[in-house]
Amino acid sequence: MMVNPVQIAEPQWSQQSDVDKPLAIETRTRFINQHCDTDTLILGTHFNTPTGVYIVSKGERKKIRW
Q: Measured between alpha carbons, how far is 26 from 3 in angstroms, rounded to an integer?
């Protein structure tokens, strides 16, 4: 779904494994919105250390909190 935490702020950024790019963007966006501003720890196995992040909003934008 995501290989880089920057995709939390920019879910439209695609990756090679996105076979269906519109569906991948929709899936990422839905996941980000569902977990934003919650106590859900997101474990990104492809993220650099630390791999656990929280998704938080900053106005209309989304970002990570370590």
A: 16
For the residues 4-33, what does the mean pLDDT come to?
Answer: 96
Q: Where are the alpha helices (DSSP H) in 1-66?
A: 6-9, 21-35
pLDDT-based confidence at residue 46 (cuts at 50, 70, 90) = confident
Q: What is the dihedral of CA 56, 23, 10, 30, to 10 degrees?
A: -10
For residue 11, cis peptide bond before it (omega within 30 degrees of 0): no
Reduced to 3 states (helix: H, G, I; strand: E, B; else coil), residue 25 is helix
Tokens 């519109």 belong to 22
Angle at 34 between CA 30 and CA 18, to 5 degrees: 30
User: Is residue 61 pLDDT above 90, yes or no?
Assistant: yes
